[in-house]
Each structure stands twice: as structure tokens, then as C-alpha cells.
Amino acid sequence: MSTIAIEKTVGQLVAEQPARSRVFEKAGIDYCCGGKKPLGQACAEKGIEVDSLVREIEALDAVTPAAEADWTTESLTALCDHVQHTHHDYLREALPRLSFLTEKVSNAHGDRDFRLAEVAVVFAAFREELESHMMKEEMILFPLIRRMESEGTTAHSHCGSVRNPIRVMVSEHDDAGEALAKMRALTDDYTPPATACNTYRAMLDALATLEADMHVHVHKENSILFPRAEELERTVQG
């Protein structure tokens, strides 16, 4: 009998075992921004035979140890710290480098492939929004969650319910996902042409790495941190 319930959401399945993300990425199933869809529905929308995908997940589970802390049970404070010091710190290093790379490639090759100029434009907007997004999480949402957990009471702030900043963060995650998808499409799935120079190839590699990290980052927030914070608020409110 299968241990994978197709009624579970894709996000829940990855929360239980992060390595499952590889199966969903291979199948083209969104487990971060689209993580609220039940597995059966996600497979149906992609025209994938659900039993076959379940077998892939079970085979992976059998050989994959837990790679990280179980963020479904660790404290919310620990999860906020992890997101900030792992994913936000990565972005603070990666985003300036990618600004340099996308602009340099656009200037050098944009006259031969107009899409590269568009990549630079899309990335610039993506970076600006993401830096603002991280600031709001670190200055407003994460402190609100930490206080609520440490004090055991609803944390008072100008935001009102924790659901309000979470709603904004989820919307901005959707925007970031759309920008990443657009850059993937503009670069033919990050595939370098035969004539690509080393800077061009470095840009594509960096974009692919950024997208992979963002998928994991957004998943941890949308599918684990935010639902748990909302549940904590309901609990402390009684």
C-alpha cells in the first residue's frame, strides 16, 4: 500500500521530505508558489499518471535520509533565523553579481539576441522587489512571529493580524515566481548557445542556481512558516 496520499498538497509532501522537490522539478510541478494544490490535481493538470509519480517519490524516499532540520516541528524562531541566514544571505551575495552579469551580457550580446536585454530588465525589477521583500520580512514579519512565539500572545503591531503581512509576502512570492519563469523562457531553459562566451555561461548558471534556491526558499515560507504562524496566532487567541 502506498504511503503517499494524493490528497496531500505538493507543498506538504516536500515539507515532509525536501528531497522530493527533485521529483516535482523533473515533472514540472510547482511545489513553492503552487504548493497548495493536492498531488492528484497537480498531476492531472500536467497530464502525469499519478501512480507513476508516487512510485518515483517512494523510490526516492527509500534512499534519501533527512537532509535538514524538520521545519514542520522546529520552532518558528529557528525557521525565521534559518531563512534569514541561509536564503536571504545567499540572495545578498547573488543579486549584485547577477546584476553585473545580466547587464554585461545584455551590452555584449543584446544586439544579436534582443531577449538578453529583456533578461536584464526583468532581473533588475526582480532584484528591486526582492530586496524590498527581504527587508519587510526581516523588519516586520519575522520579528512579529518571533514575539508571538516567545510571549505566547498575539503580538501587537500596526499590521494587525499576522495574516496581513503574510498575504503581502505570498503575493510578492508569486511575482518573483513569474519573473523567474520569464527569465527561464527568455534563455531557453538556461541553455547557452554554442557561441556563448564564459560570461554568458556564468550568467545562465547563476540564474539557474538562483531559481533553484528561490523554489526551496519560497516553499519553506509558503508551505511551512506562514501556515504555522497563522495556526499559532489562532491558538494564542484561543
Topology:
Elements lengths: L9 H7 L4 H7 L11 H8 L3 H14 L12 H34 L4 H38 L11 H24 L11 H40 L1
Strand content: under 5%
Radius of gyration: 19 Å
Q: Which structural class should the secondary elements be placed in?
A: mainly alpha
Parts with pLDDT < 50 across at least 5 consecutive residues: none
The run of helices and strands is: HHHHHHHH
Report how far apart the termini are.
39 Å
Number of helices: 8
For the residues shown, what is the average pLDDT? 91
Number of domains: 2
Query: Biggest sheet, open or closed, and with what strands and sense?
Result: none
The overall strand count is 0
Helix content: over 70%
Features:
238 residues; mainly alpha; 2 domains; 8 helices; 0% strand
Q: Can you tell me about this structure?
A:
With 238 residues, the chain is an all-alpha fold. It folds into two domains: 10-63, no CATH class; 76-237, no CATH class. Helix content is 72%, strand content 0%. It is built from eight helices and no strands. The radius of gyration is 19 Å and the shape is globular. The protein starts with 9 loop residues before the first helix and ends with a helix. The model has no long low-confidence stretch (mean pLDDT 91).
